[in-house]
Amino acid sequence: MSVEHELYVELGERRYPIFIGPDLIGGAELIRPYLAGSQALVVTNETVAPLYLERVRQALSNVHVCDVALPDGEIHKTLASFSKIIDALVEGRHDRNTTVVALGGGVVGDIAGFAAASYLRGVRFIQMPTTLLAQVDSSVGGKTAVNHPTGKNLIGAFYQPACVIADTTVLATLPPRELTAGIAEVIKHGVIYDAEFFGWLEHHVDDVLHLEGNAIGYAIRRSCEIKAKVVAADERESGLREILNFGHTFAHALEQATGYSRWLHGEAVSLGMVMAADLSMREKLLGDAEAQRIKQLLKRTGLPVVVPPDLEPDALLEAMSHDKKVKAGTIRFVVVDRIGNVRTTAACSQTSLAQTLRAGDALCER
Amino acid sequence: MSVEHELYVELGERRYPIFIGPDLIGGAELIRPYLAGSQALVVTNETVAPLYLERVRQALSNVHVCDVALPDGEIHKTLASFSKIIDALVEGRHDRNTTVVALGGGVVGDIAGFAAASYLRGVRFIQMPTTLLAQVDSSVGGKTAVNHPTGKNLIGAFYQPACVIADTTVLATLPPRELTAGIAEVIKHGVIYDAEFFGWLEHHVDDVLHLEGNAIGYAIRRSCEIKAKVVAADERESGLREILNFGHTFAHALEQATGYSRWLHGEAVSLGMVMAADLSMREKLLGDAEAQRIKQLLKRTGLPVVVPPDLEPDALLEAMSHDKKVKAGTIRFVVVDRIGNVRTTAACSQTSLAQTLRAGDALCER
Which residues touch A255 (CB under 8 Å, ≥6 apart)? Predict the structure, then answer.
């Protein structure tokens, strides 16, 4: 066990650490100070459980541990899964001093976090993200939620964990497609906040994908730092935090229009970011060359950058109208002025939007 | 419309007013400043809707209003009802600037509040309590929840309203049994915090039950003041706020053991308070005469003060073990030292507790 990086999300009395390094999930001394009492519930999924549940149970050997393994996948991010966790807490007679530990990807973290926020009106919560996407994005910042049949993350809470334990060793068992999906959010953090980091990724993204020790650790660390800074400045998304949704208005629509089954979230975000860059370019905010750089970096990793021809623009528009970021009926987009600098606007023209939705494989090109 | 009393729950940036007086629910100018935007969803129940929904809709005539009427009763305080509200918000395409208005008793307020806390991770919330119990207790303080099949209020959030509008005129259409049930929580506030108010009630409880203008207004106001003070000192129930649960450990067990169907919540609280006073007396904390005063005041109003013989002590004990206030397996009770002064303890003897559970009609008597 070796904590290589330790950083903090600065939220006053709810300040909490993110630990990054190899072989962390079995570390009893790492997690112990963050437990609320003598009970814990580990929430995981059927894919992760056989790999890592036992190791986490051992790290928690000094407390009474229950566990619940949800079926794997975004389609199970529902109120029904939320209820399963609540049932496990009730059946295990967990009291207010229990701790809910989320061991898994973003779906597990989001559902478990909402259950921790709601059980007895809030119990202790710890994130142990096991996918790259969860480590660099969803485990940090306190957004928890489940999906509604008509839209993603419509039911949830802002609820911060007591700590985040990001074990880089577990990434070795990730399917390559899941690893690549996580890179999308890493690249996003470069685009929205840090041109230098984007440039570093252009040089080192292959090292990151090969889990080369220093590269993967730094990519996770820098992503978490950027996210932590944005979250600390705007915990409840009244302004700045919206920039983290770069690419997500399109991504959510893509996922919804395809029943959450065609892409992993990170893959949808990749395509969503190319669409957002394309829209920014058409609106003459972003230069053609920079739009191309965004598309090319994503494409090199193997992430999708083409709108499939079977996706009707009207279906995507309809899906976008349910987005949480719709204000008074107007769709708001995060647009790029230059790499490292984005902002939210409701002023994109219908013409540009229609062109983006129809662009197919010609996104960001002209 | 006449705001006779206006007081504030002092919670820093979440400070909010409670308005008390006749004919308030139709007051457009009263509610308008507290709406977040141009949409609202009124949550009510099938009993209240025909009486008052139209009047509230008129008060909201300047915004786009949807409504949802839940079936009436504690047995509908479920995740299913919560989902119904979320569905109505989604179907009505409510965005982050919507306002959820709870028009009804404690059940409506608790479910609607949890839905407002969870929809898009939190939208504006206004309480319009229409029962005495909701006006003097559940609408104030930000506790929202739904029940789990095995226990009350196990799933919820702390979520404060933007304002509480307590219309005393609507109490005239309350069934007498509901009005009386509300008195239980009024009396509770005297027992836990204010001996003088308890004495005032001994003299004026009949005026309150007859909805005599000054008496009912003052009883609501003083109850809200006491609750607001306790909540402001301890919003998330880490200490002082537990005193508001006086009688409730027993009451929740009574309700659960009888499937939430035999008593109204206030009725169960009445019996629970007599049991808690009895336990305090057996533990030699409370004098016999004061225990008798508590029982007598409740009895005079027609509230239940006798443990029915069909309720097995073991069933009640089992139900109590699921209570949220259980810490590390020990049941905690709010006990009375004297009228106006209570505290939480985990030190009650099993013998005293067993005697209280078996006391039947001899509670507080020896």
Answer: A74, A152, A262, A263, A265, A268
Å between B238 CA and nearest CA of chain A: 10
A5-172 matches A176-362 in fold:
no
Which residues partner with A66 through β-bridges? A41
Fold of the domain built from segment(s) B5-173: Rossmann fold (3.40.50)
> Domain segments of chain B: what residues?
5-173, 176-362
Rounded Cα distance between B302 and A267, Å, is 65
The tens digit of pLDDT for each residue in B179-230 reads: 999 999 999 999 999 999 999 999 999 999 999 989 999 999 999 999 999 9
Q: From chain B, which residues contact A within 8 Å (Cβ)?
A: 37-38, 79, 83, 86-87, 90, 93, 95-97, 114, 117-122, 143-145, 148, 150-151, 153-158, 236, 321-322, 324, 326-329
Nearest CA among A147, A156, A161 for reference residue B114: A156
A85, A89, A155: which to substitute to probe chain B, counting the most B Cβ within 10 Å? A155
Disruptive mutation site among B121, B124, B147 for chain A (greatest number of A CBs within 10 Å) = B121
Indicate the angle between helix axes A176-193 and A265-282, nearest 10 degrees.
30
Asked if residues B327 and B237 have their Cβ atoms less than 8 Å apart, the reply is no
b/e A279-292 (16+ beta carbons within 10 angstroms → b) = bbbbbebbeeebbb
Q: What order do you get walking across the sheet with A64-70 strand by strand?
A: A5-9, A16-21, A163-167, A124-129, A98-104, A39-45, A64-70
Q: Is the pLDDT of residue B41 over 70?
A: yes
Helix (H, G, I), strand (E, B), or coil: what is residue B156?
A: strand
- C-alpha distances (whole Å) from A259 to each of A75, A255, B299 are 8, 6, 59
- The model's pLDDT over A274-331, given as tens digits with 9 standing for 90+, comes to 999 999 999 999 999 999 999 999 999 999 999 999 999 999 998 888 766 666 568 8
pLDDT digits (tens, 9 = 90+) for B111-140: 999 999 999 999 999 999 999 999 999 999
Give the model's pLDDT for residue B328. Answer: 58
Q: What is the ipTM of this complex?
A: 0.90
Name the architecture of domain A5-172. Answer: 3-Layer(aba) Sandwich (3.40)
Q: What is the pLDDT of residue A325?
A: 66
- The CA angle A298-A300-A304, to the nearest 5 degrees, is 50
Q: How far apart are CA A348 and CA A364, in angstroms?
A: 16
B242 pLDDT above the threshold of 80? yes
CATH of A176-362, one of 3.30.530.20, 1.20.1090.10, 1.10.10.10, 3.40.50.300: 1.20.1090.10
Nearest CB to A96 within list B93, B157, B327: B327
Instruction: Give, to the nearest 10 degrees, the angle between helix A106-118 and helix B106-118.
Output: 150
User: Is the distance from CB of B364 to CB of B281 less than 8 angstroms?
Assistant: yes
